[in-house]
Specification:
The chain is globular. It is mainly alpha-helical and about 140 residues long. Helix content is about 50%, strand content about 10%.
């Protein structure tokens, strides 16, 4: 839905996002903190605001930049680090990651989950933490 929304310019209903969230709400009781259609629509208005901000700034701020004292990307885009040092999407921050990819942002702050021991042993994780950032990948 996010690609259809921003690349093709259709609304969230036509893109399928609203139907998807309503289906998840029917199965789980809630999705992304939403339980009703008005809450889903409000959530997507927030995603639209994020897209507009990132489009204008061409930069995604860290939690520390947003909140001041935070030093972790808690509830951010969640990634694991594979044996070769490449990021593996872990499930959190789908909209932010989708927007960042569509806008082709150079750097994206992430919350790191599991790190493969070989990424540590071969120095790939240290390079990431040392400020070089995650390499651009063609992962789906």
């Amino acid at each position: 839905p996010i690609t259809r929304r921003y690349r093709d310019g259709v609304d969230w209903h036509e893109a399928g996002g609203v139907a998807l969230m309503m289906e998840l709400i029917a199965r789980r009781g809630s999705c992304d903190g939403c339980r009703t259609l008005p809450e889903v629509e409000a959530r997507y208005r927030g995603v639209d605001r994020l897209h507009a901000e990132l489009s204008a700034s061409r930069s995604m701020r860290t939690r520390a930049e947003l909140l001041g004292l935070s030093f972790r990307e808690k509830r951010g885009i969640y990634v694991h680090i594979g044996r070769d040092g490449q990021p593996i999407f872990g499930g959190g921050g789908c909209h932010r990651l989708g927007i960042a990819r569509l806008l082709d942002l150079d750097r994206i702050p992430v919350q790191v989950g599991a790190v493969h021991p070989l990424a540590i042993a071969h120095g790939a994780y240290g390079a990431l933490r040392g400020g070089k950032g995650l390499a651009r990948t063609q992962q789906p």
